[in-house]
Amino acid sequence: MSWLTNYVKPKLRKVLNPKETPDNLWHKCKSCGQMIFQKEFIANQYVCAHCDHHDRVPPKDRFDALFDNGTYELIDMPKVNQDPLKFRDTKKYTDRLKVARNTTGDEDAIKAAVGKVGGVTTVIAVQNFYFMGGSMGMAVGEGIIAAAQHALKISAPMVMMTASGGARMQEGILSLMQMPRTTVAVQMLRDAGLPYLVVLTDPTTGGVSASYAMLGDIQIAEPGAMIAFSGPRVIEQTIREKLPEGFQRSEYLQEHGMVDMVTHRHEMAEKLGSVLSMLMSGRHRKKAAE
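The structure assignment produced for this chain is given below.
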């Protein structure tokens, strides 16, 4: 039986199924359910070719799409205490971090880089929703501060691309303290006369939406992105009323003055380049006049 199981059966399987389909060959759209060839989906910047649904994007792909010619340099992220509260729920916090790092290849839910966008030297920070829901902990707070300090050092504008479920519960009050700390970092850019742009992607919620995500000189959102503090289900249960169609989505927020513009992902690099060029040329003219 051992000989049949270990030798004959695998040989037969190889003959009958010479080519097994890899698990990651296709992507199923979360909106329309269409199956899309994975390579085509990535080449289309994670946008569904059938319904135009904007899916979530890892930081590297963001940088490749936004920086001129995909050329940029990563900014070193500060090291933080890995488990300050020795937190444990169903798993140890350290174990959750290990899983997230192995899955994404990143140290935490934030990465920042510097390069040119539309010819303008720019610092871009990107939150990674695939790393524990893009949750804001000490590492994210320190990463945003490091990106802002680098922008100050080279007198460059900063673009913040948000994607988060909110503050990281495993770090308790220490994660909530990143709200005022990042707010101070944004104010430092403002005091220096450097533009701070925010690109809101799906989803941007919780403490992130209550701090640096809503402090941009210009607020840009991707189509269909959920932007909220509490989700619609929680609000409906609280007020016991049905919410309007599209409530807390980019387009709804633009109509009500909370977002300046909704920009398609394929047009984002060009839009950022033109806005940054305009803002920085105005800054240069002001400095020359002074």
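Interim note for the steering committee: The chain is about 40% helix and 15% strand. Residues 4 and 11 are 10 Å apart (CA to CA).
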